[in-house]
Specification:
alpha/beta, six-stranded mixed beta sheet, two-stranded antiparallel ribbon, 9 helices, disordered N terminus, binds zinc ion, ComF family protein, PRTase_dom, PRTase-like
């Protein structure tokens, strides 16, 4: 923070030069703040940065965008606008999906920056909300049993392009920050199917792959049939990806108890700003 100007004192900044204003500012700070200011300036010089959302210089996330982002993310209990139910028609089952926010405004920008512009530091912003939603949707287990948090995988092409798996990255951050309760366990058991064999060739496929051979996703076989899983995704739009993930888990012997996401696409009639 700048020290108050002394009335009548002529400052270098008053001469109008940006360099003079910079010197003015540096000279007006306490030693500790001057050191922090110097480090920030040095970092900005060596590693120029800009806000992930509005591109304002010198901040990875500027204070205004940070405030907007926090205002658009929610902790449980999550209201009806942040919930929906998806159907698995062939099993005549419904499962509940809860999201921490609506996919609009700064939250949508932040998710896109995180997924498509390498702003991986945003995982720390998202982790508390995704972890809280997951904890709220997972009933307490009997001692010794866990609910598995299963991230929905990015497509192989997207993963190659980004170099990381966004949802898995958020879960890892939540785990590292101690936000995942002990009754939950992160298990990336879903994969995209990748085969050079002609469709229909069954030799060499696992039991679960053969069972769910109609879909693009498969899950590793459940060691314990009926293991409870909670799917985790970044954005839910039509729900088709979550349904494919749920079908793959079910085919491999798991029980899908629901899904959580960072954001849900608002219905067309919803006013988001
Ligand atoms: Zn900003």
């Amino acid at each position: 923070m700048l020290a108050p100007a002394v009335p009548g004192q002529r400052t270098l900044g008053a001469m109008g030069s940006p360099l003079a204003a910079w010197v003015d500012r540096a000279l007006s700070l306490t030693p500790a703040r001057a050191a922090a200011f110097g480090l920030r300036e040095l970092a900005a010089l060596l590693l120029p940065t800009s806000c992930a959302l509005c591109q304002a210089p010198d901040h990875r996330l500027c204070p205004r965008c940070a405030r907007q982002l926090v205002a658009q993310l929610h902790l449980p209990p999550l209201g009806p606008a942040l919930r929906c139910r998806l159907e698995l028609p062939q099993h005549q089952e419904l499962f509940l999906v809860c999201a921490a926010g609506l996919y609009a405004n700064e939250l949508a920008q932040a998710i896109l920056a995180f997924k498509n512009r390498q702003r991986v530091f945003l995982a720390a912003q998202f982790a508390p909300y995704l972890a809280a939603a997951a904890a709220a949707l997972s009933p307490p287990c009997v001692p010794g049993e866990q609910v598995w948090l299963v991230p929905v995988p990015s497509s192989p092409a997207a993963r190659t392009r980004r170099g990381y798996w966004p949802v898995q990255r958020i879960l890892c951050r939540a785990q590292a920050d101690g936000l995942i309760p002990a009754r939950l366990s992160c298990r990336p058991i879903l994969r995209h199917r990748f085969s050079l064999r002609p469709a229909g060739a069954q030799k060499g496929k696992s039991r679960s792959q053969r069972r769910s051979s109609g879909g693009a996703l498969y899950a590793f076989d459940a060691a314990r049939p009926g293991q409870q899983v909670l799917l985790v995704d970044d954005v839910v739009t039509t729900g088709a990806t979550l349904i494919a993930a749920a079908n793959a888990c079910r085919a491999a012997g798991y029980r899908v108890i629901g899904a959580v996401a960072l954001a849900l696409t608002p219905p067309p009639s919803t006013e988001t700003r």
